[in-house]
Amino acid sequence: MPESQWPKDTAYSAMVILSFICNASCAYCFQRQPAISQIGPRLNSRPMTNDIMDQVFKFVDYRRQGSVVNLVMLGGEALIFPDHCLRLLRGMPALSNARLTTNGVLLVPSLAERLVEAGLKSALITFDGSQPNHDATRYLAGNRGTYDTIVKNLSAVETTALRTNIRIHVTPHNYASIPDLLNDLSTNLNPSLHTVFFALVHDTGVGWQSGLDPNTLPAEEAIIELYRLSAALGFGVPTRTRVPCPMCQAGGSVIGPTGHLYPCEEMAGFEDRRVGDVWNGYDEAISNIRWGRCFTSRIDPDPD
Ligand code: SF4
Question: Are strands 144-145 and 276-277 parallel, antiparallel or unpaired?
Fold first, then answer.
């Protein structure tokens, strides 16, 4: 957000993308070039260097204006670079809250413990429906599914102080399988240690069959039913309120691995969406042209 529109808030939100490298290759990933393409190559970049990260610390320290910092750390898959994650957490000025978006494949207890010790509070892990649905969209090289590994890791990190938020993508294609997913998770996990929430996913060219229009009453009722089932199985279910996105609407910053600034995570990595960098700050003239909101309204808590 341009500095002239900079609001005074109690916490400053910084989203830091450590690299676009990922061990998965989800069809709907928005980090593709060109955007909105399921076959284009994923964005690529070297992981953030120490020099850039040091400048990120200076930039955040200036922008926060005495406020505490809420950090969101993500990739690509950030845990491919555990030392970068630890350095970012340890060096972030006035760190108050830190959360990690991860696909969960590398989230083992020994690493979770080190991350918590460095300041991480929670991790967001996504499922795309029951095992066959999930493994059909969230897979590693060679089409190896990730479901079993993620469930095993989620169960193992229950021994640590890391809180986990499970985001379940809802599409017309996977909707019918979600009760099976919830039942399986409740069998393999201690539900009281995990919070579940649902996110409608738009078809970005993947070609899902139609049938669950997000603007219709049946879609609302379907999601309410899923929340009821989650709560009945013992999962934490957040009470959610619509809030301005802390990044693109409330003065926070989205910082890419090269130190460039973007209005929103969905625009990160695209040269034509850059609005400044951590050395020179926001370019107000370019920001006025390029600033944009995230595609969907943000709902709190929505830890992505
Ligand atoms: S795990 Fe996330 S970053 Fe990696 S390909 Fe899937 S959606 Fe993209």
Answer: unpaired
107 CA to middle of ligand 1, Å?
15
CA of 191: how far to CAs of 66, 105, 237, in Å? Answer: 38, 19, 10
**pLDDT tens-digit map of 142-183:** 789 999 999 999 999 999 999 999 999 988 778 889 999 999
Q: Which 3 state secondary structure label does DSSP give 158?
A: helix
Tokens of 158: 């229950």
Atom of ligand 1 nearest to the CA of 76: 3
Q: How far apart are CA 120 and CA 194, in angstroms?
A: 16
Structural domains of the chain ordered from first start = 3-300 (3.20.20.70)
> Which residues line ligand 1 at a C-beta cut-off of 6 Å?
22, 24-26, 29, 31, 75-77, 103, 138
- Identity at 217, one-letter amino acid code: L
72 backbone dihedrals φ, ψ, rounded to 5°: -115, 125
From start to end of the chain, where are the E strands? 11-17, 68-74, 95-101, 122-127, 139-140, 144-145, 163-170, 194-200, 241-242, 253-255, 260-262, 276-277, 281-282, 299-300
Give tens-digit pLDDT for 231-271: 999 999 987 666 777 787 778 899 999 999 999 888 888 89
